[in-house]
């Protein structure tokens, strides 16, 4: 490791230093050879609850773990060591990217820490499995796609429902017209968590590098109800159940509708409820209508009695409701349909993580490629922007711009706290 990299890393962690942003000179020398290792080797960046869950699925490949919380890192390392005997531990993701023997990284950080390490991993010649939602903002998502394409990286988004048979079955029937022309899709989100009231701010625990945890987000005092699992419910770091569950169920709606490379033309949030006295900022309830301009409307509901968790496709000849482990057609006839040889067949994957590893070898796009993850996350972000402003938005999915509301358009990007910035 060069002295230049060591100094840059130290400066990066210490946000108070007067240093240049991450968009300055490249920090990594891209890998030039794949296949030097007998087995694909993965480094795991962010190993809290979700990160350790994914780690278990990459256990045969994992050689290093990284987390700004040393307790998380040590728990994850123990998982690997108990299985394989050896695992390296880091507190800075860039040390993982410096490793020439690591072929791919699995990123399971809070959402505000998805874009920077994904882009830098691509620049370092790595492939990336990034948890959903792909991004914190629409602008970040597009930059992640651009980095993947520019560096020819395989990037899988962790919207893993595409690798389950019930969702594949539902979407293939819908795509092939077996419920007729689809006019409405209901997407149900989980109800809001009950976080209680916000406790007083306190000192961050010694095991947590809190400044690095904040990273590109605004500098704020430490509060236990803003970190780890609870990051999901604060705008600085995430987008509530819209990005938490919308990144799954909207993803399936797009798959069934064939909207993986496009998006809605308008988004209108109504029946929005906020409870600022609670320890979160995001909506408690909402009903959001997405108009795709082709006769199809998607209605996303949180706390709506007529929209249950999951995805329901409604056509003029029938309906299909699908959720994890649940496939419910509106008739036995629809349920008994067998696809014809001439029917459209969708990408088949029975294991999301294995699909990623297979694509590292084949260099093909995975089942939930970065562009797909970006388009799904974009729909989620637009819904949240409409909720926050409680106004109807008009969206151009080609230019990826909100065309009718300057304030809303500004919310498609976010300022990053120096030195944790993107170019």
TrEMBL record:
<dbReference type="InterPro" id="IPR036291">
    <property type="entry name" value="NAD(P)-bd_dom_sf"/>
</dbReference>
<dbReference type="Pfam" id="PF01408">
    <property type="entry name" value="GFO_IDH_MocA"/>
</dbReference>
<dbReference type="InterPro" id="IPR006311">
    <property type="entry name" value="TAT_signal"/>
</dbReference>
<keyword id="KW-0732">Signal</keyword>
<protein>
    <submittedName>
        <fullName>Dehydrogenase</fullName>
    </submittedName>
</protein>
<dbReference type="InterPro" id="IPR043906">
    <property type="entry name" value="Gfo/Idh/MocA_OxRdtase_bact_C"/>
</dbReference>
<dbReference type="Pfam" id="PF19051">
    <property type="entry name" value="GFO_IDH_MocA_C2"/>
</dbReference>
<feature type="signal peptide">
    <location>
        <begin position="1"/>
        <end position="35"/>
    </location>
</feature>
<feature type="domain" description="Gfo/Idh/MocA-like oxidoreductase bacterial type C-terminal">
    <location>
        <begin position="202"/>
        <end position="421"/>
    </location>
</feature>
<feature type="domain" description="Gfo/Idh/MocA-like oxidoreductase N-terminal">
    <location>
        <begin position="42"/>
        <end position="158"/>
    </location>
</feature>
<dbReference type="GO" id="GO:0000166">
    <property type="term" value="F:nucleotide binding"/>
</dbReference>
<dbReference type="InterPro" id="IPR000683">
    <property type="entry name" value="Gfo/Idh/MocA-like_OxRdtase_N"/>
</dbReference>
<dbReference type="InterPro" id="IPR019546">
    <property type="entry name" value="TAT_signal_bac_arc"/>
</dbReference>
<dbReference type="InterPro" id="IPR050463">
    <property type="entry name" value="Gfo/Idh/MocA_oxidrdct_glycsds"/>
</dbReference>
